[in-house]
Structure formats: C-alpha cells, structure tokens
Design goal:
single chain, 350 residues, 7-stranded parallel sheet, 5-stranded parallel sheet, 14 helices
Length: 350
C-alpha cells in the first residue's frame, strides 16, 4: 500500500490508480513528515514537493533524506526555476534521491520501475555545486524541452518532455475529432500545444490553421521529435496502427444503447479490453447513478463523464475540469476548494 502527501497537486494525485493506505493534504514542516512516517509501514510515498515547507532550500530536502528511506519516496517536483535547475537536481541525486519527476504519469511508472543511479547519472554534476553547477550543466529541464542527452524514453517521460495523448473512438462516432479540437483550444492559453489527426482531413472544417493532418508514416516524425518545442501533442488517432506507440490513450465511448450494442457486436472482447483502457464517456446523458451502473455492467472504471459539448464555447468548464483531472494543473476549474488538513483524522472539528 502507498502513501500520498500532497499540496498544490492534490487534485492531480487523487486520480492515481494505485492502492492508497494514507492520504494527507497540506503544507508541513519536514520534521513533521519524518516523525509521522518514519515508523509507518508503506510501499511507496508519493510526495508533492510543495507539501514541504521551504522546499526550495535544498537543506530542507537533506533533512528529509536523513529521516526517510528515499528509495521508497517518489518526489513530484513543481515547475519552479529553482527546483528544476541543474544544481538542485544534481543535489537530489547526491543525496540518493533518484525517483523524481514533473510528470504525473511517471509517478505510477516509478512505483513499479524505480530508478537507479544509472538512470539519472547524466544529471549528476560531479565536482560542481551552486552557480558553478548551473553554468556547467548542458541539460535543459524547461517544460517542453527535450535535450539530446535524454538517452531513453523513461527519462524523457520522467522530466515531462512533450506529452503525447491519443484520442480514440471506441464506439462508433464517439467524438474524438471534436474533443481533440476542444482540448487543444482549452490548453493553448497555458501550454504550447499541437493537435494532429491521422489519415483523415476532418480538421479542415474547423478553419483553424494550428491543426495539422498527417499520415501514419509521418506521425512518429512529429511525436518522437527530440527537439520538439511543444509541451503537449494531441493526436486524433483514428484507425492508425501507430496507436501502439503512444503510451497515453483516451478511449471514448458514447453510452447510448445503439452505440454500445454496435461496439460489442463489432468486437466481442471489447469489454475485457476496456478494463485496461482509460475510458471516457463522451456525448453522454448519464447521471452519476447511470455511470455506476455502466461501470458495474462493463466491469471497467470510467475516467470522466462528458456531456454534449458546445465546440463554439470559448471557456468550457467541463473540458477544463477534464484536463485538470488529467494533470494539466494550470487549468484550475472554478470552485475548486482545498480540503481541511488532518494527519490521521483523529482530532474533531470544534
């Protein structure tokens, strides 16, 4: 079982599909974190770095490394310049902290595939510290930048290079093209985003010059470009076999009787496959109780339940909430409130 200590990224971490034994939220002194979890049995601790008071001071993290077994801690970094500086990253490695990331998807990966020194050695600046380390480092950790010395895919993912997300219709006509377009429109005010469709020309009807139509043969030259300046690439994947090369795929289901029955008759094993998919109900008229019944009958967990959406609406709350749930934390939905901080829920409210 795992522990989550969260603050700024609490909403994002709440969507992790992992077993949780304890989940606390707030900003804490490092001594409090150590004392509360030093003798607490857990498999892994997912620690939002913003939950640590004075976390930008590397000496604070050093206190943490003295008190906890850091091989069991996955540190979710924020996007501040100090924390992502080469010197700060190098100091983490010097303390034996190898499991750190800015990408929420990498958290689940690191639980079962923890880094060793070999995985992060290229970011360890030997014989240099402070400003000297920053000037000697030749890596770029800015969001969206992938340096040529990122040597493997896990490291690319760990430092949140270009995030590639495919959108796929699981039931016929579930709205992948329009949803991809709306996701792109919602993200582009805060992220450098590209939207592409594969083997079709439907994007031309949106009259948006920033949408791109490509062939299957061209797809990987865009999604795996090591010099990409995009933080996010959205792919309306259609029927391209290259879907297997994209790790993050949203499968859309339109939950009407005719669409569901047609989907099942087309592929008798589809319900079994859905158990491992990130399923989103789109163009849905289901309420919460209906969704529960759908999940029970299909034996799968739905990630989101999206209603019919107006693609002409500039600021769509449903889309922003959906994207925030996916980890795009710059899109904070209106009305999001912090939970009351309680370590173990023992003390009653006055």
């Amino acid at each position: 079982m795992n522990v989550i200590v969260a603050n700024k990224y609490s909403q994002m971490l709440s969507n992790l599909r992992i077993d949780i034994i304890k989940n606390v939220e707030g900003e804490f002194d490092v001594e409090d974190i150590v004392s509360n979890f030093q003798n607490f049995f857990f498999n892994k601790m997912i620690l939002d770095i913003t939950a640590i008071k004075d976390y930008q001071n590397i000496a604070t993290i050093q206190k943490l490394s003295f008190g906890l077994d850091m091989s069991k801690v996955i540190l979710l970094l924020d996007d501040s310049q100090i924390v992502n500086s080469p010197s700060y990253i190098s100091e983490l490695i010097s303390m034996g902290i190898y499991n750190f990331t800015r990408n929420i998807d990498a958290v689940a990966y690191l639980i079962n595939n923890p880094n060793t020194y070999k995985d992060v050695a290229q970011y360890h600046i030997l014989g240099a510290s402070g400003a000297k380390a920053d000037t000697q480092a030749n890596i770029s950790l800015d969001p969206g930048q992938i340096n040529s010395n990122f040597i493997n895919e896990s490291v690319n993912k760990m430092f949140m290079g270009t995030r590639v997300i495919a959108v796929k219709n699981l039931s016929d006509g579930a709205g992948a093209t329009t949803l991809t377009y709306m996701m792109k429109k919602a993200l582009e005010g805060n992220y450098r985003v590209l939207a592409i469709e594969v083997d079709k020309k439907d994007f031309m009807y949106f009259n948006d010059s920033d949408l791109r139509s490509v062939t299957t043969a061209e797809l990987e030259t865009i999604t795996k470009n090591p010099n990409s300046d995009y933080e996010v690439i959205l792919v309306d994947i259609n029927d391209s076999p290259k879907i297997s090369t994209i790790k993050e795929v949203i499968h859309l289901v339109e939950p009407t009787t005719i669409k569901l029955n047609k989907m099942i008759r087309t592929d008798r094993l589809v319900l079994e496959k859905m158990k491992s998919y990130q399923v989103v109900l789109n163009k849905s008229l289901l309420n919460d109780k209906d969704v529960e019944e759908f999940e029970y009958e299909s034996r799968c967990k739905t990630f989101a339940n999206l209603p019919y959406l107006d693609d002409k609406q500039e600021d769509n709350k449903d889309i922003k909430t959906f994207l925030y749930k996916m980890g795009f934390d710059k899109l904070i939905p209106e009305g999001l409130e912090k939970k009351t901080v309680k370590w173990f829920g023992i003390v009653k409210d006055e």
